[in-house]
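haha ok so turns out i had the wrong file open the whole time. this is the CORRECT one, sorry everyone. sequence first:
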Amino acid sequence: MLITSDAYTQLEDTLAKMAEAAELDQTRWNRLKTAYEAISKWLSEDPDFFGEVEIEIYPQGSVSIGTTTKPYGRTEFDLDVIIHIKLLSSNHQPETIFNEVVRRLNENETYQKMSESKSRCVRLNYKGDFHLDVVPGCMVVIHDNELIDIPDQKRKIWLRSCPKGYQSWFLEIANKVQLTFLEKAFSANKIEIEEYAKKKPLQRAIQLIKMDRNIYFNKHPEHAPASIILTTLAAQFYDGQPSISETFEGIIDKIRNHIKILYPNRPFEIPNPANPSENLADVWEDKPELYSHFISFIEKLYSDWQKLKKSHGIEEEAELMKGMFGEDSYIKAMEAKADMVNKRRGQGLAILPSGIMIDSHAEKSLPVKPNTFYGD
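then structure:
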């Protein structure tokens, strides 16, 4: 971590570490990958339906674009994977494909005990780890490896989707920033750049927005806007800022203005950038009260951010950040900072006049005073 006396850099660093504390870690990502590869293998070994069919399995949603966040108050992550079945959807009924996936999974004693059929997926509950929503999909046309039809087994229709195309669209926008604000801060002071500083500001801002959403709608999660809505709007309104705080503020400002100027009383459509015929916010048409909850959330997010910008002192800032993004994430960020100070102190810790931590033999450095970051 960066240990700095510069308030802006300090905020930026803390925001990044808080988002990192709430995301899917590498160990759990490895377990997820092992889990969905095992599902693919089990389907491919089916002697009745899938055995002669090519199947590709891959994550979609937050896992694929690097914006995972742990649900508030829970240890499990909600994650999605696509079972891309290389059969033309036009040759099959949607309920047939869905039912075949359910049948094959239930033939496995382990999967049978943890499975729950939903409208468009089969949920596998890896207790204490993650909920894995297995979403089957078939080809729309031959030789197109992105466009798929997903069976809605309750409505008995195919739903067009393009998760790979969405991932490419999002990452192209996020990667417009070649060096983040934190990467530049590390490089300017000749410090090896840590991994958490490399994640793009758009990804971090979306993580923080979702963290705040999870807290705001903790008692009524059914009112919360879907991650795909928040993610798509964030990417569409992103202006390429290199810092998390500028990105976060810019996105919220633009969403808020979009609502106030154009759609104060009625919901708007959000076309899927990878499949424009799909309205990602169609739920607002069926349940307009959810749009009202969305507006209230954006107003609260805007208000809280303005308070954080104007906060005076570490204690006030800490309380605001805990309220917005979670106490656990804040504590983990502060613990990481304290650990860094303690490790470096024994190595001859020093700090530049700019506030960046360096070795004590560096030029123009000052000794660091003892600090636990808890006011002790």
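The first strand starts at residue 55 and ends at 60.
again sry for the mixup
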